[in-house]
Amino acid sequence: MRRSTATVTMTAALLLTAACSSSASDPHSNEALGKSSTPTAPSSAAGSAANASAAFKTVATAVPTAHLTGTVTAENDPNHLLGRPNQYTSKVTFSDSRVPAGDTSHLDATDIGKGGAIEAFATPADAEARAKYVQAVTKSMPALAEYDYQHGTILIRVSHFLTPAQAAAYKTAADKIS
C-alpha cells in the first residue's frame, strides 16, 4: 500500500518533534518520568533544608556510625535537581565510618559511596519516582549500585560498600522518620 507524500511528511515531522522533545533527551524530565510538567511550589530554603536535616537526625540516632558531611544547595548540587519540579526539595550527604576507607579514597567527601544521602521530596510519589530512576540507572553498573530506602517523602540512599546487614540499619531508621 502506498502512502501519500503528505502522510509521510506529517509522520516524519511528528517523529522529529518527538525525538527533539525534552523527554527524549533528558531522562530526568517530567515527561520521561510520566509526570505533569506543572511545577510544584518549592519549599523555602530554610524549610526544605529542615526536611532532609531532620530525617538525618533520626537516622543518625539509629545509625551512630553516620556523620553529616554536607548540605546540598542549588549552587553545589551535582545533579542540578534541587528545587526543580518533582525533584528533591532538600538533600544532605553523610559518611559512615564502617565504609572501608581504602575503597573510597578516590571519592569526594560528599559522595554517596562514602556513606549516603538523604533526599526530601514534596510528595511520596516524587520520592518513589526518584528511587525507581536511581535503581534503573545503577542496575547495570555495579560500581554505582546502592541501597535505597523510601519512607513517605524521604529517600535514603546508602553506599554499596556497606554489607546488606549494615545497610539494613538505614531501612530500620527510615521507618522511624515521621
Automatic annotation (TrEMBL):
PROSITE patterns: PROKAR_LIPOPROTEIN
The entry's keywords: Signal
Endpoints of the signal sequence: 1-24
Biased amino acid composition, Low complexity: 34-46
Ranges where the record places region Disordered: 24-46
Name listed for the protein in its UniProt record: Lipoprotein
Species this protein is from: Streptantibioticus cattleyicolor (strain ATCC 35852 / DSM 46488 / JCM 4925 / NBRC 14057 / NRRL 8057) (Streptomyces cattleya)
